[in-house]
Design brief:
By secondary structure, the chain is α+β, with helices and mostly antiparallel strands. The protein has a single domain, classed as Aminopeptidase (3-Layer(aba) Sandwich). Helices cover about 30% and strands about 40% of the residues. The chain is built from four helices and seven strands, in the order βααβββαβαββ. Strands 1-2-3-4-5-7-6 form a seven-stranded mixed β-sheet, with helices on both faces.
């Protein structure tokens, strides 16, 4: 498996993965538009040309928000999400970002455990952030020195 920046050839697979993993998925056009956004960095975990997972982020000044992360169900429990986040943090540090923030469903205990294992801490709570179903989001963050 290799982790590389998303390119046009990945967009359709990422959009399929969005539909598979999320109740409110990004459209293929929305994913494709991230390639044109100078604030965005999306990374792909790829094996034999197939997208196993991805992470997307947007940085403004020295603060980054993780927009999306997903791993194909048949590829889960293999460290792909951790590898994607670790590579994202490494690239963000090199670009001068100093914090990575994200929202996660309050009930997504496995994701919360992963984020905590990677050094994220809770910064706050967004009431009724998610739709389909309606649920609160925990705001998590990880800071580092640049």
């Amino acid at each position: 498996m290799k982790i590389i920046p998303m390119n046009e050839g990945h967009v359709a697979q990422v959009a399929v993965l969005e539909k598979l993993c999320f109740s409110d998925p990004w459209s293929e056009n929305s994913v494709a538009s991230e390639l044109e956004n100078p604030l965005s960095l999306w990374l792909i975990a790829e094996e034999d040309g197939a997208v196993c997972g991805y992470v997307g982020s947007q940085t403004v000044l020295d603060e980054t928000d993780m927009m999306n992360i997903a791993v194909r169900p048949d590829c889960r429990r293999n460290g792909i999400a951790a590898a994607l986040i670790t590579e994202l943090v490494s690239r963000l540090k090199a670009q001068g970002s100093r914090i990575l923030r994200l929202e996660v469903r309050e009930s997504n205990f496995s994701a919360i455990a992963l984020y905590e294992a990677l050094g994220f801490t809770q910064l706050g709570l967004r009431k009724n952030y998610y739709r389909n179903p309606k649920e609160n989001a925990l705001i998590l963050g990880k800071e580092w020195e640049i």
